[in-house]
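Deliverable D5.2: sample structural annotation.
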Amino acid sequence: MEELAEVAGISIDTIRFYQGRGLLASPLRQGRIALYSEEHRKQLQRIRTLSEDGLPLAIIKRMLDAPQGAPIAGLDAKLLPALVKESVGKRLYSREEFLREAAIPETLLDVAQNAGLIQPIAVDSKARYTEADLQMLRAGRVLVESGLPLDELVTLSRDHAHSIEEVTERAVDLFDRHIRRVHETREAALPNATAETPTLGMHTTQTQAVETALDRFHTLLPEITHLVALHFERTLIRRALQRFADAPETHHPDPQLRTLADGKAKE
């Protein structure tokens, strides 16, 4: 194991971590001695590369468990990296880099992690943070600096996260049934040569069917994100206006809030 760690350029603890997760094949045994082969080194390199790309360990295990180490095929082979890219962004941050970029105290990161609002990715058994995590913490810092109590803000954020789980699950299922599986079925039915597919309205191949489904994903993701953000924003303003209207000490909503609401309505 010591020699494998040196050749692979990773720590012994990382090798044991991968073995514990079932990612690395068991070594050969000669008595009490564990022997590792070149195949183990290649396996470690693949795990490390996939981890650095931001793939969750469960997905990496699925890819490694495929027959002959075969990659996930068809649409999923294209969709999986696209999903990872959207979730990770351009780069990953170590804990030290993340704290420096976010300009937050370490206690705030610990609070967010313990509440499940931030979930780092394990790379070489070390925590790595994404650009989305960075944006969330920066936004949280602004809210805290504006005067909102941290404990109540974390509770509200946790409740919000729990409340959207069911909705997002249904949204994923909707995409799965009407986009991913439909195009996956078309792809399987198409020969490698050009074939007529009336549903697509064009001559297409298996590759083109995959690309069409992937294009749908790239088009729909920002649109549904925008839709959800706009709905939340308008609901927030509407409820705030209602709160002002119902307040016994005032008969009219705050003029600035009304101006903001009118501006959003015109948008």
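Annotation notes: The CA atoms of residues 63 and 69 lie 7 Å apart. The chain has eleven helices and six strands.
The annotation will be released with the project's public dataset once the embargo ends.
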